[in-house]
Specification:
CATH superfamily of the largest domain: Thiolase/Chalcone synthase
Number of helices: 11
Shape: globular
Order of helices and strands: EEHHEHHEHEHEHEHEHEHHEEEEE
Helix content: 25-40%
CATH class of the largest domain: Alpha Beta
CATH topology of the largest domain: Peroxisomal Thiolase, Chain A, domain 1
Structural class: alpha/beta
Distance between the termini: 38 Å
Radius of gyration: 21 Å
Largest sheet: 12 strands, mixed
């Protein structure tokens, strides 16, 4: 019944369901698993160096973050040898994440996969073409093309874990995996799924390495994010996966909550194919959107895992975004630069850096950047270097991903006890 006057009664919108991170998985130049990843992050050791995944003899630069040989397990199906490297990375990280979450395949019920990638199986597609054009060489087996499509890593995870819920792939340059994790957050809030396997996977390949070299965007030395003498990025490869589920479900089954994913924001510079807006306004818009989505005041942000590529324009625009968002306080927020250690994992960078953010919040430590490069004197950024920095346990951490085409994504995490 309507109240007097015929007006509909006002209803307060219900609070969005809280989302827990209960499992983490990683493959990177540090090794296969979260443990080697956390070791190099905590110690600030760069995993960048000589690599053999592709022939780079004709290029100007000769280092990258290559995943070491693996995976170190005899339990893998024989069919894995026919999968692309991106699919292998995705499978290992997903298996590690669900095991850590206390789950096991088959994952039944409303479970979804949300993955980001930039290259999919482009490495193996290149091998196929090389063999096709060299009739005296090895046969160009069609299995090399099986993982060419961008949805291959996410689909491989769904098959391996027998997930019959939604499987979504996002490819939006370097923001891909962060946007995939944001999509998983929305699906969990809306009740579309109760568990989400979210992350990304990418592999080094000749096409991307040649492309970034032609742009002269790769440093001949390990990249130096926000450094005075930075000269470009370093490429890497691997995968990162988070198991996300409703907090009620996680607590109900006695799972360990590693962190909470509080919110996400996205934007587009809508300006240039490769260069960011110098003002940083596009990235600043994503930062503000993420904080609003998380219902977190900017004063609570006590840690940032920066995009930090080490390129001249991107680092400057990113700092401008932080300054525009946080004002004078921007210089007081500890910032980690994961790419100085692992390289730029392209479409999966947002996933591996989300894993790094959770690890840092959980340990109450901001991991240091590799090296001791003087910070650009035009920036007020508080880049953590040398030793890990203690973090207050009640603060919020951001993971920032800023991609080509002006695609920006920001994820907001906190310790479970701090919410």
């Amino acid at each position: 019944m309507l109240p007097e006057g015929g007006a509909s009664p006002a209803h307060e919108p219900s609070a969005p369901r809280r989302v827990a991170v209960t499992g983490l998985g990683a493959v990177s130049a540090a090794g296969w698993g979260v443990a080697p990843l956390w070791r190099v992050l905590r110690e600030g050791q760069t995993a960048l160096g000589p690599f053999s995944r592709i022939d780079h003899t004709r290029h100007r630069t000769h280092l990258a973050g290559q995943v070491p040989a693996g995976p170190p397990s005899a339990s893998w199906p024989r069919a894995i040898a026919r999968l692309s490297f991106s699919e292998r990375f995705a499978l290992f990280a997903a298996r590690e994440a669900i095991a850590q979450a206390g789950l096991a395949a088959p994952l039944e019920g409303p479970v979804g996969v949300f993955f980001g990638t930039s290259t999919g199986g482009l490495l193996e597609s290149g091998w196929f073409l090389d063999r096709l054009w060299a009739p005296d060489g090895p046969r160009a087996g069609l299995h090399l093309m099986a993982g060419h499509q961008l949805n291959a890593p996410g689909d491989a995870v769904a098959r391996d874990l027998a997930i019959t819920g939604p499987v979504e792939t996002i490819s939006s340059a370097c923001a891909s995996a962060a946007l995939a994790i944001a999509a998983a957050l929305r699906a969990l809030r809306e009740g579309e799924v109760e568990v989400a396997i979210a992350g990304g996977a990418d592999c080094l390949c000749a096409t991307t390495y040649a492309g970034f070299n032609s742009l002269r965007s790769i440093d001949e030395s390990p990249c130096r994010p926000f450094g005075e003498d930075r000269r470009g990025l370093s490429l890497g490869e691997g995968a990162g996966v988070l198991v996300l589920e409703s907090l009620d479900r996680a607590l109900g089954r006695g799972a360990t909550v590693r962190a909470e994913l509080l919110g996400a924001g996205a934007s587009c510079d809508a300006s240039h194919m490769t260069a960011p807006l110098e003002s940083g306004q596009g990235a600043a818009s994503a930062l503000r959107s993420a904080l609003a989505d998380a219902a977190v005041p900017k004063e609570r942000v006590g840690y940032i895992n920066a995009h930090g590529t080490g390129t001249v324009l991107n680092d400057a625009a990113e700092w401008a975004a932080y300054a525009a968002t946080f004002g004078e306080r921007a210089s007081k927020i500890p910032v980690s630069a994961t790419k100085s250690i692992l390289g730029h994992l392209l479409g999966s960078s947002g996933a591996i850096e989300a894993v790094a953010t959770v690890l840092c919040l959980e340990a109450r430590l901001a991991h240091p950047a590799a090296g001791h490069e003087p910070v650009d004197s035009r920036f007020g950024i508080d880049l953590v270097q040398g030793e890990p920095r203690n973090l207050d346990g009640d603060q919020v951490g951001l993971s920032t991903s800023l991609g080509f085409g002006g695609a920006n994504a920001v994820l907001v995490f906190s310790r479970h006890e701090a919410v």
